């Protein structure tokens, strides 16, 4: 029985395109974090570092440090929407560390920023309307906003995103609502 390869091809150009895409997805929801944390630049710094790498800078320890700092900012965020916006920023910087492994986990490096950005938009609407922020969104409008965010992410994905996804297994199960968004976007980009 043939087995799947352990590694995939992954060029530096593809890695830069993926990081730039992730940064663009995260930048869209950055205001959701900065509204409640105007002095905390960790998510913005992570997005800027991803953008700088996408523009040709080397992949350095500083980029990884900024990804972790944005992740920590998410843990300290005042609202669920702000937390997911910071997670999107963390994933943007972490996209530069996509590994050439044939693992479903690597899909999270490619699409994590987009999935967290969609969740941040959904949660922001939920908070704005006074609905519960836990579990499934209770309004059709919140679901519609999330679906629009995922569709925008699908349309804006550069060729490198779909090409590299085609070398990987499908997005893994689990992960709650963000995991659901990850699988929806992954399936749409593979269609």
Could you explain how this protein is built, in words?
By secondary structure, the protein is an all-alpha fold. Helix content is 68%, strand content 0%. The chain is built from eight helices and no strands. The protein has helices spanning 12-34, 42-54, 61-75, 80-94, 105-128, 140-156, 159-165, 176-190.
Strand segment count: 0
Overall mean pLDDT: 92
Based on secondary structure, the structural category is mainly alpha
What pattern of helices and strands is seen along the backbone?
HHHHHHHH
- Could you give a short account of the major beta sheet? none
The N- to C-terminal Cα distance equals 27 Å
- Stretches with pLDDT under 50, minimum 5 residues: none
Q: Given the C-alpha coordinates, what overall shape results?
A: globular
Roughly what percent helix?
Answer: 55-70%
Strand-residue proportion: under 5%
Please give the count of helices: 8
Based on CA atoms alone, the radius of gyration comes out at 16 Å
How are the elements arranged and paired?
Elements: H1 12-34, H2 42-54, H3 61-75, H4 80-94, H5 105-128, H6 140-156, H7 159-165, H8 176-190
Helix pairs in contact: 1-2, 1-4, 1-5, 1-7, 2-3, 2-4, 3-4, 4-5, 5-6, 5-8, 6-8
Q: Which terms summarize this structure?
A:
single chain, mainly alpha, 68% helix, 191 residues, globular, 8 helices
Short description:
By secondary structure, the chain is an all-alpha fold. The chain is built from 8 helices and no strands.
